[in-house]
């Protein structure tokens, strides 16, 4: 390995068996090896390549992002580099202390106290008792566990366990951090704290390999990225261009999926509920009334919903959800009910326009789901998800996630009744 390399992966292949029995027997064969050793380059029935011909080198201080859809092999690659599992063929060399954050708190012992677990966990990560003692306060402080640190770990919530696991791992003075998705858990302020801590460790000269479905995390924390597809490297380069390539594929796949869906007027929901109402179309419009597929953050967006009501309907609401295609978050900022009360939809055709004024979202691709609900239990009468909008990234600007709900709703003459003050409030949009 060259002088400043921290990780070098050469011609790495990993196969798995889809069924449990096959996994078990091939695991035994790997263990006993020798005479029973099979040809590693051949697949047997039920086996598949989880990773195929992976080559990479990570130098001191570099940070690498891994992106790809579910099941593309990201976690497998991290587990191989962390030494949790062995490759089928190829080599992996690492140098220095590794802090793997794969399944945070997985090694914790529930009957021991939080504090005993800190000693246990950090010694497994290669720290001496003296080293643990000197960083103990910082760990407990970071994890925000407070007095519960002396309670048995079994009494901790999942969030507390993850916070403690993260705190232990980041206080081991690692040369390489291997992070799998952990930034997506915990509450919003802890996630920011984790991101900042990882950034501090990076600035201190450590290297980082990060798997995340969050564009923000990959862009903020990594210089270089690899796009994995079905276990193979599809693209590699600076993080922004790799993310663009990944998102372009996601956009194409989403559009194909949306296009192949049933037309809204025959949507299953409408039929099941006796066709009280159908959505004829959804269009995304700019201020000039032109259909659009992309906008810049801060621009206005009008969601036009044309419906045919087959009978008079009381207590209705038009709802729009923005679902980021890449990130596991749903924004559901709009219900006309919040603003206006219930909409009375009379039998016949109506075209309703909800103007988001302006839409301020993180850049990325959003699929737009529209539904019409009825009553305070929000029975969904019909729904459609056939459009998507790309929020573009303005050059040189940093966009934070937040929304402004629609201020202008054109109900095309439909009447409105006041909401019942007893009704439950809508949840706000989730922050990143
Ligand atoms: N121990 C195992 N035995 C058999 N198959 C496995 C094993 N571990 C992972 N796989 C399979 O290998 C493939 C890659 O899984 P992996 O967990 O690496 O994906 P991933 O990219 O991390 O996905 P995600 O985004 O959902 O976390 C998947 O098809 C998965 O089902
Ligand atoms: Mg994974």
Automatic annotation (TrEMBL):
Start and end residues of each stretch annotated as Disordered: 253-272
Biased composition, class Basic and acidic residues, residue ranges: 253-264
Pfam family, one: ABC_tran
Domain of life of the source: Bacteria
GO molecular function: ATP binding
SMART domains xrefs: AAA
Keywords on record: ATP-binding, Nucleotide-binding, Transport
ABC transporter domain: residues covered: 35-255
Record-linked CDD domains: ABC_KpsT_Wzt, Wzt_C-like
Family indicated by similarity: Belongs to the ABC transporter superfamily.
Protein name per its UniProtKB record: ABC transporter ATP-binding protein
């Amino acid at each position: 390995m060259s002088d400043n390399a921290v990780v070098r992966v050469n011609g790495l292949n990993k196969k798995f068996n889809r069924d449990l029995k096959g996994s078990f027997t091939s695991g035994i064969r790997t263990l006993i090896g020798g005479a029973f050793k099979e040809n590693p380059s051949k697949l047997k029935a039920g086996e598949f390549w989880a990773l195929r011909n992976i080559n990479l080198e990570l130098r001191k201080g570099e940070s690498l992002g891994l992106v790809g859809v579910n099941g593309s092999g990201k976690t497998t690659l991290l587990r191989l580099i962390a030494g949790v599992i062995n490759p089928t063929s190829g080599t992996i060399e690492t140098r220095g202390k590794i802090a793997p954050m794969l399944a945070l708190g997985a090694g914790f012992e529930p009957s021991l106290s939080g504090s005993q677990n800190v000693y246990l966990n950090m010694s497994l990560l290669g720290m001496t008792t003296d080293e643990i003692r000197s960083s103990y306060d910082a760990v407990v402080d970071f994890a925000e566990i407070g007095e519960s640190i002396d309670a048995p770990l079994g009494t901790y919530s999942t969030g507390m366990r993850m916070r403690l696991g993260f705190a232990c791992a980041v206080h081991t003075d690692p040369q390489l951090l291997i992070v799998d998705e952990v930034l997506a858990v915990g509450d919003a302020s802890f996630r920011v704290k984790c991101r900042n801590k990882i950034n501090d460790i990076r600035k201190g000269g450590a290297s980082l390999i990060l798997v995340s479905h969050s564009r923000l995390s990959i862009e903020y924390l990594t210089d270089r990225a690899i796009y994995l597809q079905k276990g193979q490297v599809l693209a590699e380069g600076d993080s922004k261009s790799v993310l663009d390539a990944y998102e372009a594929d996601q956009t194409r796949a989403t559009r194909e999926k949306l296009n192949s869906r049933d037309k809204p007027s025959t949507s299953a929901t409408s039929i099941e509920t006796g066709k009280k109402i159908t959505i004829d179309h959804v269009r995304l419009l700019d201020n000039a009334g032109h259909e659009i597929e992309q906008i810049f953050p801060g621009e206005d967006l009008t969601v036009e919903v044309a419906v045919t009501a087959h009978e008079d309907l009381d207590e209705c609401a038009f709802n729009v959800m923005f679902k980021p295609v890449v990130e596991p978050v749903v924004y559901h900022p709009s219900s006309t009910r919040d603003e206006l009360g219930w909409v009375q939809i009379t039998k016949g055709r109506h075209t309703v326009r909800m103007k988001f004024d302006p839409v301020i979202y993180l850049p990325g691709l959003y699929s737009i789901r529209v539904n019409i609900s009825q009553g305070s239990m929000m029975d969904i009468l019909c729904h459609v998800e056939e459009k998507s909008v790309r929020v573009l990234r303005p050059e040189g600007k940093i966009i934070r996630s937040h929304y402004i709900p629609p201020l202008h709703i054109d109900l095309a003459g439909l009447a409105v009744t006041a909401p019942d003050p007893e009704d439950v409030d809508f949840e706000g949009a989730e922050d990143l």
